[in-house]
Amino acid sequence: MPKITFAAADGDTRTIEANIGDSVMETAVRNGIGGIVAECGGSLSCATCHVIVDEHDFASLPPMEEMEDEMLWGTAVDRAGTSRLSCQIRVTEGMDLGVTLPETQV
Amino acid sequence: MGENGLLIIGSSQAGVQLAVSSRALGYAAPVTLLGDENHRPYQRPPLSKDFLQDKITKESLIFRSQEFWDEHRITVVKGERVDKIDVTPDGTGTAWSASGRAFPFDRLALTVGARARRLEVPGADLDGVLYLRNADDALDLKARTPGAGRVVVIGGGFIGIEAAASLHSLGKRVTLLEFADRLVARAVGAETSRFILDHHRRAGIDIRLGSAVDEIVGHDGKVRAVRVGGEEIAADIVLVGVGVIPNTELAEAMGLRCDDGIVVDRHAVASDGTTLAVGDCANLPNPVPGSPAGGRVRFESVNHAIEHAKVAAHALVGRQEEYAGIPWFWSNQGDLKLQIAGLSSGYDRSVVRSPADPLKHSVLYYRGDRLIAADCVNVPLDFMAVKQALSRGVSLPPDAVADPGAPLKSLLAEATAPDEGNPSS
């Protein structure tokens, strides 16, 4: 199964087996990853599911659309070079993704 | 702590958040989350949008996995409608469901939400007159959609417009009737109403303002048309979205003070001093920093349900956290992503930023010199900047924001000290 590893800002990491087709945000929320808030439930309206994707995984993801890019300018913790909104990242076959959670989402 | 713990009535957005937050804050006693629907706790917002358009499955509406509930020792009960609550002066008691089950509690929370206001015209009880508040409503609407070519939507608020846009995208001929002289009058300013109206009309939705429905006309018990003035508009389905009514009946029976919702203090505590009431069903002191003193509000939003539940969870564990925050709202309507930061009611000046793109629209609202809100359509940059400015208690100069070429984020960076001291009062 695809795997996603969430590293909290304090260094705690948790690896979760994810379902193909779900978003990384959904995977996090259903399993209670605390650092993902996702107020809007994935409709690209709130920017509270911000993650910083591991450098070597970033290029393997489909590029982001303009709306996501704009929303990322308003995250609670300033965006980094490999920032994404996790509601826009779909879990794909064979995915082994590492993401770091920002200190806060709101 | 007693052995019965917290009973949360209503597995709504607020109920789920209260359960999760109480555990996060270290509440150790049992937590029971009780819902009257035969579904696991689910998200409502997509019901009028992606779920209605078949873009997502029912499964993706589910808030949390069963493993999560188990791991956090939260008992989720579905399909039990509470119709009686016995409570003692110390706040403990028992809730009884219609099926006769007893749910004893040490502390009670009401997250019972609101229900769709029913249309009161002749023919409103015909088969095919539908509402869209919960999952069963949405499943019913979806089941009937394939066989319906013509839909009349009554009500030009968020639900009505979102559903109209969704149904239109599915190829339906959609007429939307709004009683007032503009759309979403309760939530956005006049310029935004106009922008939304023009867009959806261009897209092909027949929107009629100032339209009072006289009657829903049926044939063999099924809806056939909607009569407005002298005209009959043919309809295979009529979808009604004319607002909601807070569910206060249980609270009233308990003797709690209710006035457009269950009246609570800044800590989400009701008039008996112990019962928590959270989310759409609660009427609370206006939490917006800088809002006129003494005002009360009742919000219908996800953001509020979440923030209010966190405040209630603090009260539950004996920590007095006051609710202060910037409310925000969103509404996805076909190609339009509307985002609202703050509350614009009571504004005395609005500044329209007019980007060259006809799909984009942004208005900032001021009371005096103070920025209080913004309506943004397809301009998330503006929305995020205003939300941050409001959270930090800074204003953005009205003259500068009028230039659509000036990024609000830069203006926000230039804005210095808060204009009314620390907003986190």
Write the layout of secondary structure elements.
The complex is a heterodimer of chains A (106) and B (425).
Chain A: E1 3-7, E2 13-17, H1 24-30, E3 50-53, H2 55-58, H3 66-72, E4 83-85, E5 96-100
Chain B: E1 6-9, H1 13-24, E2 31-34, H2 66-71, E3 74-77, E4 82-87, E5 93-97, E6 102-105, E7 107-110, E8 114-116, E9 129-131, H3 135-144, E10 150-154, H4 158-169, E11 173-177, H5 190-203, E12 206-208, E13 213-219, E14 222-228, E15 231-234, E16 237-240, E17 244-246, H6 249-253, E18 262-263, E19 276-277, E20 282-285, E21 296-297, H7 302-316, E22 328-333, E23 336-342, E24 349-353, E25 361-367, E26 370-377, H8 380-392, H9 398-401, H10 408-414
Parallel strand pairs in B: 1-2, 1-7, 2-3, 7-19, 9-16, 10-11, 10-16, 11-12, 18-20
Antiparallel strand pairs in B: 4-5, 5-6, 8-17, 13-14, 14-15, 20-21, 22-23, 23-26, 24-25, 25-26
Helix pairs in contact in B: 1-7
The greatest inter-chain interface is formed by: A-B, 21 and 34 residues
The second-level CATH architecture of the largest domain in chain B is 3-Layer(bba) Sandwich
Multimeric organization: heterodimer
Overall pLDDT score of chain B: 94
User: What's the Cα radius of gyration of chain B?
Assistant: 23 Å
**Strand percent estimate of chain A:** 15-25%
Number of strands of chain A: 5
What are the low-pLDDT stretches of chain B, counting only 5+ consecutive residues below 50?
Answer: 417-425
Please give the alpha-carbon distance between the first and last residues of chain B.
31 Å
Order of helical and strand elements of chain A:
EEHEHHEE
Give the mean pLDDT of chain A: 93
- Structural class of the helix and strand makeup of chain B? alpha/beta
Tell me, briefly, the overall form of chain B.
globular
Strand content of chain B: 25-35%
Strand order of the largest sheet of chain A: 2-1-5-3-4
Q: Output the CATH homologous superfamily of the largest domain in chain B.
A: FAD/NAD(P)-binding domain
The counted number of beta strands of chain B is 26
What's the architecture of chain A, going by CATH?
Answer: Roll
